[in-house]
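Board notes, transcribed. Complex of a protein with nicotinamide-adenine-dinucleotide.
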Amino acid sequence: MKHGHETASRGVALLHDPLHNKGTAFTEVERDALGLRGLLPPHVHTQEEQMARFLENMRGLADPLEKFVALNSLHDRNEALFFRVVCDHVDEIMPLIYTPTVGLACQRFGHIFQRPRGMFISINDRGRIADILRNWPGKAGIIVVTDGERILGLGDQGANGMGIPVGKLSLYTACAGVDPAICLPVTLDMGTNNETLLNDPYYVGLRRRRVTGPAYDELIDEFITAARHVFPDVIIQFEDFANHNAFRLLERYRHKICTFNDDIQGTASVALAGVLSALRVKGTSLADEKFLFLGAGEAATGIADLIVAAMVAEGVDVMEARKHCWLVDSKGLVVKSREGLASQKLPYAHDHPPVSDFLSALKALKPTGIIGVAAVGGTFTPEVLRAMADGNERPIVFALSNPTSKSECTAEQAYEGTDGRALFASGSPFLPLQYQGKTMVPRQGNNSYIFPGVGLGAIACGATRITDEMFLAAANTLASLVTPADLDQGSLFPPLSNTREVSARIAVAVAEVAFERGLAAKSRPEDMLTLVKAHVYDPRYPVVHS
Ligand code: NAD
């Protein structure tokens, strides 16, 4: 699928239409045919020249937030060029349009605001959400929706959380080639309890505290119903909801509509893929491992659940499989005797005396892997890493919390603390580094390996549901694309620059599951990869013949 969807716009309107604008790259023929003569300087540039010009300007900016603003403005002017820049420079641009910079962009959202993107629906819009959605000019194939209550590890950012759905949808296009014309970012403004925002004159959201209880649920329900009514085949991805809502909303809707929660299921899939790569290095299987999680929220229980599902698929009994995962939350080790545990933690509340802190739990349980997802920076201390190194030849150390300031440890700390033996993955990016003369290339357990391919696969086959089995298939596919050379340099994931190929493979695996389980609205094609690739958007301008 080429850039250049059918457009009726001409002249100035075309130059202001980011989905179709090519700026100075409009050819002589197009300038005449589309009423652009005189509205552009005479020289016709290639997309490559436009890209080089943009990168030169962007790289001259000192501050990541300024680069974010520059990229955002490009996105608002010329989507094809924006996605060309992102696709051709994924390693450089992804940390600017997503973690870690997007976290800062959300915190500063009102201050750097230039043009709205996506749709803002507030608690004041009850009763008219379908009408509001009809204001969206195109059709929507994928909605990423947030209520802004748990943005990355940064907590409640209210309506400023819009940076996340916008960023995630950019990754759908950049990493998998989902057509930007069908991507709709949505923020549900339920109020905010963030005092700083409530007192900030530039805050973009409602000046009120968060609504809770039935009024909250009714708004969500009206939104879901309206979205399905206005855009019948839409996939709805929940994003960065606080965990008291995330689990129950997922449970409420996952069996009724085509939906998933990336913080729970996408995270689980990428983390499991990293674990599977680590096991290849160790020559072990999941049943040989014991994982201790720091954190017991969406990411932790999502990952634990998928590890268990993977073990069950290998023939291990579910009750036995759960004993391989242990959780530590803000109150200490999750154990059976603790009262009032949230339902998602219960499968991991094992028989054990109470333990109040992570290091003591680690010493008591002697895990083979630690997975940090508590959004508390620096918690994999030298003592923690030493204990892992003492107990394991190749300790698995995943510091997944975002943004970088919340990371449990840096890559360098992980290697130094374990004599270079850690099998390390992180949530935020760390640069390659030298450890005792060897170049280590730690890679990010980035959800963007998974969700774009899952979405693309679901679109390609017309999936009616998105299931855990699909995320398991995605994890296995991602892990299978890690080469021995990757493993040798400490990389548990393929390079991010391969992301389009990775996403296409994941899309095929997801579509296979959908067809297998009768969850595909379309008929099964001869060749799944061809079907998937037919849905891939190409940001290069089409060649125009005179
Ligand atoms: P969450 O709010 O659902 O869970 C946080 C958990 O941490 C809770 O169980 C809480 O009790 C626990 N916690 C808080 N303080 C603690 C402390 N001092 N000691 C022990 N536990 C503590 O959040 P989440 O969605 O699970 O996300 C957690 C972190 O993981 C965030 O930083 C997020 O950005 C990151 N994350 C990374 C990836 C990735 O790398 N691919 C994906 C998803 C989430």
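Residues 10 and 33 are 9 Å apart (CA to CA). The first helix runs from residue 11 to 15.
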